[in-house]
């Protein structure tokens, strides 16, 4: 069978899609399942351009959630194009708060969130200072350290301490 997210010809398995109807799941390949729970590889997800329009609502939800996690211009462009009805959008946004990542105010951070820097931060090795008030869009969570997130500032992907950000 063909994976509805990446269009690869691989064995499919049920993958739970939390936040929506009870026992909601989508049949996806093992590569997609591993990257949904781990670090996404940008080129693997090019198939989201078509899967975000799937008739299967669980596939739509997974597609939009992954687009929000990807830090690429093409993913942001697709997010601008997607239309979801109110119930589906609520499902997309209703991600279980399993994240241990908290901003400076104690608010839970999730992958794909937008944050603002609350102080000037010198970026080691990059030769610039990320200024207070800088918006960082579509953050990624560092899985093994709840005090670190990743985001793009001035075109460079950097690691940021959560104590220096505020969720938008």
Automatic annotation (TrEMBL):
Pfam families: YjdM. Residues 3-37 form the PhnA protein N-terminal proteobacterial domain. InterPro entries: PhnaA_N_proteobac, YjdM_C. This is PhnA protein N-terminal proteobacterial domain-containing protein. It comes from Aliiroseovarius pelagivivens.
